[in-house]
Write a structure and sequence with these properties.
The structure holds 2 protein chains of 2 kinds.
Chain A: H1 3-7, H2 23-26, H3 40-47, E1 84-85, E2 92-93, H4 96-104, H5 107-116
Antiparallel strand pairs in A: 1-2
Chain B: E1 7-8, H1 13-23, E2 31-36, E3 41-47, E4 50-51, E5 57-59, H2 63-77, H3 87-97, H4 104-113, H5 116-121, E6 123-126, H6 140-188, H7 194-201, H8 206-223, H9 233-236, H10 238-241, H11 254-300, H12 302-328, H13 348-362, H14 379-384, H15 397-412, H16 419-427, E7 441-444, H17 447-450, H18 468-479, H19 486-493, E8 496-499, H20 508-519, E9 528-530, H21 537-546, H22 551-554, E10 556-557, H23 558-576, H24 602-609
Parallel strand pairs in B: 2-8, 8-9
Antiparallel strand pairs in B: 1-10, 2-3, 3-4, 3-5, 6-7
The chains are: A mainly alpha, B alpha+beta.
């Protein structure tokens, strides 16, 4: 059985009485990949939303637009208002003490802080 | 035997939730449903009790993001306790402690100033911690016992050493006696019989016996602890030792020349040693003298002296620091690029070398090659070679002086604390002092309202979409072309229902009201209502819908599926969604939970229908 199915046994009982064909009969143990579980991105892509009329609401076009308000800049470490930004690490900081902390941070932590606001350098 | 499920219907949880609350009389027919779920947040306007999906909007921020943000922030703040910060625990922390502020900027300023109010708002999570047992100083009795034991052991060792020594002395004396006896006997023996006589004893000649006597007596003296003066001897015989040195080479045989060379070498080394000894002695004297002077000055005016020393220490340490800095990143001014690249890790000399190498590498074929015309050109290779690094300078004079001053200061000034030690202990204090209660605390201050703030400002976590308050505005705006009347939009804002798990943060309704008031024209009536059961009312709404009479007409059954196929199903839902809020028939286990809102996708339907 697939990993997902095994894990889902926590919520799904193995034997469902209303089913004519039980899960374990359909996908016996050892048989590879009976069913593919798609994730959201795949489903959206398969749906071809661009082919649907634009005035009809669907998953893609109900997304909200970017904000019109001036964006808030907060210190990445402390959460205070951040007037400054460090050119080396690209982290925003509130004052000199935080700056000292930033400069002593190892690169891994800098990247994790940046990843929090989706600004980390992603190597592909 | 459970009945087989032959029909089903799909619905939007926000709609169920709104209808359920409308049934309870909490919200009106016209209104806005603001739902903040686990992974997404939705706003759906309702007109005459029907959702208007054309005007709804979704932002991909929800409770999941709040928890994740909190988890990441805390584990970055407390890397040592990362294991403690499990998802479940952080979710608990979020539910128990997070709140939404009316104004983020002013609230955070409280914390920045470190006011008492902020201190009260900071929550502390004390992790389980057992203090390391303090070692009790051993009692007097214990000390005495240990000392006695040690003394006994020492005594035994001493006795053993003494016994060994006396036995050795005894042995040596016996040997000496034997040898002397041998010599005496030799005197009586005939000159010709000596070899035969000695053959029995193992010695070859009389001289050998004599030298053996000397050796034995020397070691005997040593064993008895007498001072032997052998060390002095070679120095006395200096002139005899190096007999060949003053004789010119051409008067000597080849062996003698070799010998002469050896002697020369020996002489120079020993002289060098002598000189070094002399120098050390002089330095010692000099230091003594300086110390004495210092002492005198200190006695004359202790405070002035200390002050002078401090100033000197400061100057020197600055000087040394600067030199170090220069060495590690040469010309800081040129380094505007600010990258954490390779360049910054090299010191000045290494950088210069890299520069030379790169220019040499890329210089080919650029104009005329004039390299080598001038002699200086060849110096380049010298600079390039690695040996040229002045790494092995060793501690220079300043550093030595600094160490001296520091040691002096440490002696006389109790408040003195060497700088380098201070800086190194400052970065890792945990290594030096034992862990205290405070090291096992997780403080949650700003995080308490920083994390839920992302619901209103998703750009804080890099999601470029509007927050909850603006979403309401967007939704009303999307509705505008359909209904122009101001009254209608006023009636919308007069009944804003917030539902979904993430609306349980304290302060959310006030904040949402303030946010929407900023967007809407002044004088607009705004009423924010909290759902009766924010987490389960979608399910309750679906259940109550499924039990109504007209539910039978809304369902989709197996025949429909075989007749019309899955595409039809999708269109059916979009068209009929506003007419009906569906539920699963005879549901024992629920409809969608909060968050998985638009569960109308084809795949999902497919799966369910195949049942």
């Amino acid at each position: 059985m697939e990993q997902e199915v095994i894990e889902s046994e926590m919520i799904l009982p193995t034997h469902l009485r209303f089913k004519k064909v039980q899960m374990h009969e359909k996908y016996p143990k050892g048989q590879a990949r009976g069913r593919h579980w798609k994730h959201l991105k795949q489903i959206i892509q398969a749906e071809n939303y661009q082919n649907y009329p634009a005035d009809e609401p669907n998953y893609v076009n109900i997304e909200s637009p970017p904000s019109m308000h001036p964006r808030k800049q907060i210190c990445d470490i402390t959460g205070f208002e951040a007037p400054y930004s460090d050119p080396r690490t690209h982290l925003r900081y509130a004052n000199t003490e935080v700056f000292k902390v930033i400069r002593s941070l190892p690169n891994e932590y800098v990247q994790r802080y940046l990843a929090l606001r989706n600004a980390a350098v992603v190597l592909k | 035997m459970a009945p087989p499920i032959s029909e089903l219907a799909f619905g939007v949880d926000v709609a169920f939730s709104y209808k359920y609350n409308q049934q309870l009389g909490i919200c009106n027919g016209n209104g806005l449903a603001v739902c903040s779920g686990f992974t997404t947040s939705h706003v759906i306007p309702f007109i005459n009790g029907e959702p208007v999906y054309e005007a709804c909007c979704r932002t991909n921020v929800g409770g999941y993001h709040v928890t994740d943000y909190l988890k990441q922030l805390l584990s970055l703040k407390y890397p040592h306790h990362m294991q403690r910060l499990t998802w479940e625990k952080v979710e608990d922390l979020k539910m128990e402690h997070c709140y939404i502020t009316q104004d983020y900027a002013s609230e955070v300023r409280l914390f920045q100033k470190g006011t008492k109010e902020a201190e009260e708002k900071t929550r502390c999570w004390q992790l389980p911690w057992t203090p390391t047992p303090v070692e009790e100083p051993p009692s007097e009795e214990e000390i005495a016992r240990k000392a006695a034991l040690k003394e006994r052991q020492g005594q035994r060792l001493r006795e053993m050493a003494e016994a060994k020594r006396s036995s050795k002395i005894n042995e040596l004396e016996n040997e000496l006696k034997g040898l002397e006896f041998l010599i005496q006997q030799l005197r009586h023996v005939n000159e010709n019989d000596i070899p035969a006589f000695l053959a029995e004893t193992g010695y070859v000649s009389k001289q050998e016996i004599e030298s053996a006597i000397i050796k034995t007596s020397q070691s005997l003296r040593k064993a008895k602890g007498e001072q032997d003066e052998i060390e002095e001897k070679p120095e006395i015989s200096n002139s005899e030792k190096y007999t060949l040195i003053d004789i010119p080479d051409n008067m000597l045989t080849p062996e003698q020349v070799k010998e002469k060379k050896r002697q020369l070498f020996l002489k120079t080394t020993s002289e060098g040693r002598q000189r070094a000894k002399q120098k050390r002695f002089e330095e010692e004297l000099e230091r003594e003298r300086r110390n004495k002077e210092d002492e005198q000055r200190r006695l004359e005016n202790p405070e002035l002296y200390m002050e002078q020393l401090r100033v000197k220490y400061k100057d020197l340490s600055e000087k040394v620091e600067q030199r170090k800095r220069l060495k590690t990143n040469g010309n800081e001014n040129n380094n505007v690029s600010g990258g954490v690249g390779r360049g910054e890790r090299l010191n000045a000399a290494q950088k210069e070398r890299m520069r030379l190498l790169t220019t040499a590498a890329f210089d080919r074929g650029k104009g005329e090659d004039t390299f080598g015309i001038k002699d200086e050109d060849w110096q380049l290779y010298k600079k390039m070679s690695k040996d040229n690094d002045d790494e092995d300078e060793g501690p220079n004079e300043d550093e030595a002086e600094l160490a001296r001053v520091a040691s002096k200061l440490r002696e006389i000034d109790p408040s003195f604390f060497p700088k380098s030690d201070a800086s190194s202990s400052g970065t890792e204090p945990s290594r030096f002092h034992p862990l205290t209660k405070e090291d096992f605390q997780i403080l949650i201050g700003v995080e308490r309202f920083r994390c839920p703030e992302i619901l209103f400002h998703p750009n804080l976590i890099g999601i470029e979409q509007v927050g909850l308050d603006e979403m309401a505005g967007v939704s009303i705006q999307r509705l505008q072309p359909k209904s122009q009347s101001l009254e209608e939009s006023n009636s919308l804002t007069n009944s804003i229902l917030i539902t979904g798990g993430s609306c349980l943060f304290p302060g959310i309704s006030e904040r949402l009201e303030a946010g929407i008031r900023m967007i809407r024209p002044s004088g607009t009536p705004i009423r924010v209502l909290i759902a009766s059961d924010a987490v389960f009312d979608a399910w309750l709404g679906a259940a109550s819908f499924a039990s109504t009479m007209h539910f039978q007409r809304q369902v989709f059954n197996k025949t429909d599926y075989y007749e019309k196929g899955e595409d039809w199903l999708r269109r059916y839902q979009l068209k009929c969604m506003s007419l009906a809020r569906h539920g699963r028939r005879k549901t024992g286990f629920g409809t969608s939970t909060k968050g998985s809102n638009w569960n109308w996708n084809r795949n999902r339907n497919h799966k369910n229908i195949r049942i």
